[in-house]
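Protein: VCBS repeat-containing protein
Species: Candidatus Intestinimonas pullistercoris
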Amino acid sequence: MKKLIAFCAACLVTLAGCTPGGAESTAPETPVPTPPSATPLSTEEVAATPSPTPLVESSAPVVLPTESLPPETTPPAPTGSGSEEPAWDGDPDTLTLDDFPTQLTTDLAAAISSLEGDSAGLYLVAQLPDADTWLYGFYGPGETQGLILRVGTEWQSLDIPFVTPAGALPAMAYGDYDGDLDLELAIVTHQGSGTGVNVWGLSVVDFSEGPWELFQFIPADYEAILDLSLTSTYDAERNVATLQAGEAVLELDLTALGYSDPGGQVAASLGGWVLFTAQEDTLSATFSIDLNAPGLPAQGLQYAALLQADVVYTGSAFGLGDFTFSQSEL
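Structure follows.
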């Protein structure tokens, strides 16, 4: 479901304010780089590289993207005692280019659990080698954590948590997501998982003006959009719940789902799965939808449906539009 986002009256698009994140430059002032072309990104699995698309003109050399290098285990940057050189103190401002690890971390949870005391670790967690774009995670001292984005010889810290018990690594992809003929970088990070829960977060780094700007599509924003967009009705005679979002409609036969008597009114709500993907210049989201009723399980009928939507990024706001439903097979 990779469609171009159409700004038209027939497409329901509700915008929510971007949440800018703090970012502080740590490299000497140099011309701001314009990042290279887009690479597919997925929070479920790495998608195959799409057919090439025309590159946009920019003030910096543009290189074609490629798949990340095969992951190799790498230790964190030196942090412990006993080293001849001073250990890194966990402050991104003190890093030099030589401090960054060069191999992708494969077992983030194990690497972090091996830290001792007030040690700090620095890990390569995502990469676009042909775009000379590298994403590092830092953890420690204590529970301090965040990301550092490096493009060429410039880097900037990003206030984005990236560590969860599952140890899932971030993903990133370039694309012209706001249609301004400049490329932005989408970063997807794992935010939490558990029984019935698998939530990822979407951030976009904008390089167009001065210091790199970070915008985040926070849960409060997309939840507010879905509260306005998602509606449900229940036909007791047919035992059918009807979901609607924009022009998308899906009927769910509760008898076929194993619930002949839901015990009252059936209502739909956002479930515990939130996934984001990027394909060329399009961002997309997938949300699981739960059904709730007195005769259904206490936690609701989870994953009753999936709601897909295009993510609209305007450069200053996020939105959702072009909704489609599918019956969940989770």
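Remarks: The radius of gyration is 22 Å.
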